[in-house]
Design a protein that fits this description.
The protein is α+β, with helices and mostly antiparallel strands and about 375 residues long. It is built from twelve helices and 14 strands. GO terms for molecular function: GTP binding; metal ion binding; RNA ligase (ATP) activity; RNA ligase (GTP) activity.
Length: about 375
């Protein structure tokens, strides 16, 4: 995580501080099903998920989209998904930034990026991305978990970990080329080419932030599309409706993004451009946070606990974890969240990195959720 004072004319924005997979993030859905309900049909349900959600490098989505639709989705984010009938209205209320960054400007995105993104909406991708059917394994904070709809051990949940696919990668690649030129012009030096940057208020800096926001919106639409497909897969298997299965979004949060936020620095409130790469905010409930949906306030969660944090466990990690901000006034920590091989090589991480080594327990854990079996991890790495 890196933050820069927007009021300082020398402050910079760096695509490398966000990553190539812009708005790679995690979404957690709950259900009213229990382990005993799904074990008898696990193979059929797994196949249904495979049939509905395209996976792998170069996979193409089944959500109908033309060039005009893409332009609107890049600008509108989850508002586009809602308009097209792919999400429930309350899904937005459980998503960081309500699933839409308002500064998105599709005109700042290259045609190559749009060409790469057009066929990929509603696809999982490859690498460490997955759609996983999980079982609540342990509840550490019964009150906080219940506020999120996690009721008891054995409850079935679905976790989706994906981002902006080739679209976001191209946006980052295009920006790095422009920022290398800006660095020469403005005499900026870095020790790593992938940390190329530009002054926040420069044309290159502003163009990147607007195109990055469009990529973030693409990722939210992508996860929303997979949520729709996931709900359809469950409904088909259990011969009922997603609503009857209580397939509500618990939370959706990005761990690769840059956003403008207000924070206390040396006793003074400052407006910062916060870069997060494989980390999530854990805003306490008492701290105003634009990224914290108001839906957590009626439930009482943010008042006492704070922003939900989702740690997706894969690549050999024993479980995924749901955490919340600790609710201490004036305190905010970022949490390293991507347990998918980002701390070291993926092979080493799967055998040597433990949860206690990641610093993930700096905020309270609400619940641990384990995958049922490897078959259910739609990972194409």
């Amino acid at each position: 995580m890196a933050a820069f004072d927007i009021g300082d004319p020398k402050s910079v924005v760096s695509p490398g501080g966000v990553g190539f997979d812009i708005n790679c993030g995690v979404r957690l859905l709950r259900t009213n099903l229990w382990e005993k309900d799904v074990l008898p049909v696990q193979e059929r349900l797994a196949q249904s998920m495979f049939d509905h959600i395209p996976v792998g490098v170069g996979s193409k989505g089944i959500i109908p989209m033309n060039a005009r639709d893409l332009e609107e989705a890049l600008e509108m984010g989850m508002d586009w998904s809602l308009r097209e009938g792919y999400i429930w209205a309350e899904d937005k209320e459980h998503c960081e930034e309500y699933g839409r960054m308002l500064n998105a400007d599709p005109s700042k995105v290259s045609m190559r990026a749009k060409k790469r993104g057009l066929p990929q909406l509603g696809t999982l991708g490859a690498g460490n991305h997955y759609a996983e059917i999980q079982i609540v394994d342990e509840i550490y904070d019964k009150w906080a978990a219940s506020k999120m709809g996690i009721e008891d051990v054995g409850q079935v949940c679905v976790m989706i970990h994906s981002g902006s696919r080739g679209f976001g990668h191209q946006v980052a690649t295009d920006a790095l080329v422009q920022m290398e030129k800006a660095m020469k012009r403005d005499n900026i030096e870095t020790n790593d080419r992938q940390l190329a940057c530009a002054r926040i208020n420069s044309k290159e800096g502003q163009d990147y932030l607007k195109s990055m926001a469009a990529a973030a919106n693409f990722a939210w639409v992508n996860r929303s599309s997979m949520t729709f497909l996931c709900r359809q897969a469950f409904a088909k298997q259990f011969n009922t409706t997603p609503d009857d299965l209580d397939m509500h979004v618990i939370y959706d949060v990005s761990h690769n993004i840059a956003k403008t936020e207000e924070h206390m620095v040396d006793g003074k409130q400052k407006t910062l451009l916060v870069h997060r790469k494989v980390s999530e905010p854990s805003h306490p409930g008492f701290q105003p946070a634009p990224s914290l949906p108001i839906s957590t306030n009626p439930s009482g969660l943010s008042t006492h606990r704070g922003q939900p944090v989702l740690i997706g466990g894969t690549m050999g990690a024993p479980a995924s974890y749901v955490l919340t901000g600790d609710g201490k006034k004036g305190m905010q920590e970022d949490v390293l969240v991507d347990m998918s091989g980002q701390l070291t090589t993926r092979t080493a991480a799967s055998t040597s990195v433990t949860m206690s080594e990641t610093g993930a327990f700096k905020v309270p854990i609400a619940a641990a959720i384990r995958k049922i079996m490897g078959l259910w991890q739609f990972n194409t790495n």
